[in-house]
Design a protein that fits this description.
Elements lengths: L3 E4 L10 H5 L1 H4 L3 H22 L5 H15 L8 H8 L8 H10 L3 E6 L3 H11 L7 E4 L10 H11 L6 E5 L2 H10 L2 E5 L15 E3 L14
Parallel strand pairs: 1-2, 1-4, 2-3, 4-5, 5-6
Helix pairs in contact: 3-4
Length: 223
């Protein structure tokens, strides 16, 4: 058991494709492809903006990425754009998330989020999913105006929790995020929801799980 269990938000706790899935009929037959491109460009924009030193908050990049996705798929109904953006503020959390967070809290561990998401987005998502009482801290990169995978992002966890890196268990569904957190010194867990091949064989996670249920052992205690 570790002192703190910190989670990436989007794709790890919250289903990033829930917004498009909710309004699939309104988007049209290209809804699945549009959702994938939206997510891909959203992440790409965070990396390029950080490298350029031209920070723009995650909500603005999310809107820009959606604009690109609609241009990529011209048959998708652009009138659904406002529906998708509104839905992104209330994304569904994955089904196991509340129970896993509760088990961690009951065991005495501290819990938290470390996310590229803007403060407002994260507050809305946590409240909508009913997770407010299960999280001790929600850390946004807004504080330092740099996105993952910069080491300064992970340093915020160490500073807030007053722990050494190896006392923190960091969980993410994004393999690049796991690699960066491993390089920083966290114990890392890759939540490989899509059963994807590994990309960073020199920066291996301690655990690879199909979902977050694997964080709780058969005895009900954190692993």
């Amino acid at each position: 058991m570790h002192s703190a269990y910190v989670f990436d938000a989007y794709g790890t706790l919250f289903d990033v494709h829930a917004a498009v899935r909710k309004h699939a009929d309104a988007v049209g037959e290209d809804h699945a492809q549009l959702s994938e491109v939206w997510r891909h460009k959203q992440l790409e924009f965070t990396w390029t903006r950080t490298m350029m030193g031209r920070y723009v908050d995650f909500w603005e990049l999310t809107k820009q990425a959606l604009d690109y996705a609609f241009e990529k798929f011209p048959n998708a109904d652009k009138s659904s754009k406002s529906l998708l953006l509104d839905a992104y503020w209330e994304l569904d959390c994955f089904s196991e998330v509340p129970a896993v967070l509760k088990a961690l809290k009951d065991a005495g561990a501290r819990t938290g989020i470390l996310s590229n998401g803007s403060s407002g987005m994260l507050e809305a998502a946590v409240k909508s999913a009913g997770l407010s009482d299960l999280l001790d801290n929600v850390i946004s990169v807004d504080r330092i105006n740099r996105f993952k995978a910069m080491p300064e992002v992970y340093q915020m966890v160490v500073d807030d929790y007053r722990l050494y890196p190896d006392a923190v268990s960091f969980q993410s569904s994004n393999r690049w995020d796991v690699a960066a957190a491993t390089a920083f010194g966290f114990r890392t867990v890759w939540c490989n929801r899509g059963n994807q091949p590994d990309e960073y064989l020199d920066l291996l996670p301690e655990l690879v799980l199909a979902d977050l249920n694997g964080l709780i052992g058969a005895d009900g205690k954190p692993v």
